[in-house]
Description:
The protein is built from 6 helices and no strands. It has helices at residues 8-23, 28-35, 39-47, 54-63, 78-90, 95-112.
Amino acid sequence: xxxxxxxxxxxxxxxxxxxxxxxxxxxxxxxxxxxxxxxxxxxxxxxxxxxxxxxxxxxxxxxxxxxxxxxxxxxxxxxxxxxxxxxxxxxxxxxxxxxxxxxxxxxxxxxxxxxxx
Length: 117
């Protein structure tokens, strides 16, 4: 049996569902009932084990009284952040400043640990 690690976005969305559910004082069982699911299925969504489909995300956001975007706010968005950083970086005309920025980012990356891709 192959055990695949949950996608970071699925885990993040699940954690936001859990956070909002708890903020409302709602149990997994109550959320499950509102969705027509078992509490175990809600548990799997919250852990990121199971991916939440678009229509289910809409349902969850309505039950939890938040916009769908709330479930993604602050989440892993590596591609968008990388693209924004690259675009901003290429607009810097001072070569010495660009080199300093690269060195700074490399030093931060070293402190963060090995490449986790």
